[in-house]
Amino acid sequence: MDTKPAARPGRPRDEATHRAILRAANRLLHEAGYGGFSIEGVAQRAGVAKTSIYRRWPSKGALLLDLYMEGLAPTALEPGGRKVRQAFAAYLSQTVERLKDAGWSNTLRSLVAEAQNDPALARLVRDKVIQPRREDGRRLLEHGVKTGEVRRNTDIDITLDFVFGAIWYRLLLGHAAVDEAFARRVVADLFKRIGNDHPMP
C-alpha cells in the first residue's frame, strides 16, 4: 500500500502568502511612510521570510508599484452602453482616488524622485504604472474614434501626455490638489477639444 501523503496543491498557499505580503506592505506604508518602508518590515508584519518577498519582487520599489496598481483595473466600456467620455471620466477618477491618499501621493513622488538616478527603478515605474495606465487610456480613446465620439484626427499619444502631464505636474509640485474636481475639469476641457459633436448612431 502506498503510504506517501497526497501532494498538496501549492498555488492556494502561494496566493495566500502573496496577499498577506501585500496587506502587510499596505499597513507598513501607511504607518511608517515611504522613508520607514522596508522589505524587512514587511516580512515581519506578514510573518514570512524576506526571501519569500524577494522571490516575488526584486526590490521595495517593485513591491510598492505592484501595490499601487492593485485595484486599478482596465475601465469597462460595455455595461449600460456607457459612452467613452463617461468611461474616460471613470478611468481618471480611479487615478485621482488613489492619489487623494497622502501615503500614496508621497510614495509616488519619492519613487519618481529616486528614479531620476536609478535606471532600474525608472524602468519599473514606466513598465508597472505609466505604460499600463496609458494603454488603458489609449484603448478608451481609440474606441471613441471608432464610435465617432472622438475626432478621427486626434493625436492620442499627445492627448494622453496632456492628461497625465497635468496630473504629474500637480502631484510633483503640489501647487494645487489632485482631486475629483480637478479630474472633472480635465475631462470637460479634453472633450471640448477632441469630442465629436456628431458621433455615429
Give a description of the structure.
With 201 residues, the chain is mainly α. It folds into 2 domains: 11-56, Homeodomain-like (Arc Repressor Mutant, subunit A), CATH 1.10.10; 75-194, Orthogonal Bundle (Tetracycline Repressor, domain 2), CATH 1.10.357. Helix content is 68%, strand content 0%. The chain is built from 9 helices and no strands. α1 (11-32) crosses α2, α4 packs parallel to α7 (119-147) and α5 (84-99) packs antiparallel against α9 (180-194). The longest helix is centred in the middle third of the chain and has 29 residues, at 119-147.
Number of helices: 9
Report the sheet-strand fraction. under 5%
Task: Write down the secondary-structure element order.
Answer: HHHHHHHHH
Using only C-alpha atoms, the radius of gyration works out to 21 Å
In the predicted model, the low-confidence regions spanning at least 5 consecutive residues are 1-10
- Portion of residues within helices: 55-70%
Q: How many individual domains?
A: 2
